[in-house]
Amino acid sequence: MNSRMKRCALAVALTAGGTAGAAYGSGFQLMEQNASGLGNAYAGQAAAAENASTVFFNPAGMTRLPGRQASVAINAIGPSAEFTNSGGSTAPLGLASPGGNGGDAGGWAAVPNAYLSWQLTQQLWFGLGLSVPFGLKTEYDQGWVGRFQSQLSEIKTIDVNPSIAFKVNDVLSIGAGISYQRAEVKVNRSVILVPPFESHTRIDIDDSRWGYNLGVLVNLSPATRIGLTYRSAMDYDLDGTIVFTSVPVLGTARNPVRANAELPDTISWGIAHAFNPRWEGLADVTYTRWSKIKAVPLVTTGASPIAGTGVTLDTFNFQFKDSYRIGVGLNYQWSDRFTLKLGAAYDRSPVEDRFRLSFLPDSDRTWLAIGGKYRMSKQATLDFGYAHIFVKDGSINQQRGVATPPLQGNVIGNYDNYVNLLSAQFTYAF
After folding, report:
1. Burial tier of 368 (Cβ tally within 10 Å: 0-12, 13-18, 19+)
2. pTM for the complete prediction?
3. Helix (H, G, I), strand (E, B) or coil at 26
4. 411 and 398 Cβ atoms separated by less than 8 Å
């Protein structure tokens, strides 16, 4: 069984490296780090510590897991983002043909994660997590009205997170981990370099960084525990290329480029309280410092026929604000084998209306979730969940004219968004 578990974890890691995330938490943060928490809308995950996925949410929670166990989850994420044009033009000065609304810029994606918790002594635990903490993909129909700002936008991350936990006494446990995280960013769009000819650009940039996470778990009583956890920011210096294709006279031109962006740190407080042997309540408050991301310039680091070194080709003007999330959940022990889970949450977006971008048409979100846990045997558990996220309608008014290279036109209209989530997780104690 040990070798089978190792092969399964390796497969998940390889899949994560090649899977495009679809943002469903605020901004492009992915809360979907297990299936066992989805039924509760991820309420109280800093205190829940149900299985090895606590490595991500609070490493101190491993002290509640005797022996060894591994968890593997697959999360199907289905966002929908439909734009309605209300006065935007494809490009400034009428230099390109008009376009449509772009269809549904969302689409289903599979996001996996895997975790291992291993009790080494009566007081010490080791853990390992493989996860996708940030992800985004928006893709519009060819020829849509906003194609000069975004045709395809994609952010992928993978995080490897070894951790330790120490049980100080029956009341207090502490945990810590380090993260090796890799990020890849891709942006495809149209561009006019030689009017009136329409060309295309492809931006591919990536980087890897180290970070850390910390956690504390306090047992206030046999029925109540609270958790506090922190995940550090990641300061990325992304570099790669921008490729201009179908350029009149020049053909294809390539520029090396870079962009600096700091992915935010997060602090979360959670509580779990058993009202009686059948009913358990969960709650949490999570704060994410998205305001670290303001304007992100894309700067050339080498010369080409298009631009010289040190030229700012574009600036992604996010101007994010800090966000918070509040969640509540309820578990009902239906039988010895089955637990019913319910949850709701409110997730404030870091996106301000006046800075909403076509590749991140995010708004405030409200979660409703249901799920369950089925104990297949003494060693094996199956978790599953479903959530629907109601996304507040959002307007966009991105008027970017001749002074903004490359020419990007005006995108003016409204977004109608929602997200569906489905998750399943297998946990095995060995």
Report:
1. middle
2. 0.89
3. coil
4. yes
Asked if 256 and 301 touch (Cβ cutoff 8 Å), the reply is yes
- pLDDT, residue 120, reads 98
Confidence (pLDDT) at 6? 39
Give whole-number Cα distances, 394 to 1, 8, 212, 265, 414, in Å.
Answer: 50, 41, 34, 25, 6
At 356, phi and psi to the nearest 5? -65, 135
What local confidence, expressed as pLDDT, does residue 407 receive?
63
Letter string b/e over residues 289-320, b meaning 16 or more CB atoms within 10 A of that residue's CB: bbebbeebebbbeeebebbeeebebbbbebbb
CB 215 within 8 Å of CB 61: yes
Structure tokens at 311: 């030229």
The closest of 14, 31, 13 to 22, measured between CA atoms, is 31
- d(CA 245, CA 192) in angstroms, rounded, equals 11
All structural domains of the chain, each given as residue ranges with its CATH number in brackets, are: 2-429 (2.40.160.60)
DSSP state letter for 337:
S
Give the pLDDT confidence score for residue 12 in this predicted structure.
Answer: 37
Residue ranges for the chain with pLDDT beneath 70 = 1-26, 89-97, 249-250, 400-407
Q: How far is CA 1 from CA 8, 85, 130, 429, in A?
A: 11, 56, 20, 10
Query: What element of type H or E holds 144?
Result: none
In a 10 Å sphere around its CB, with 0-12 CB exposed, 13-18 middle and 19+ buried, how is residue 393 labelled? exposed
| Contact criterion met (CB below 8 Å) for 77 and 112 | no
Q: Report yes or no: 163 and 129 within 8 Å, Cβ to Cβ.
A: yes
pLDDT of residue 98: 72
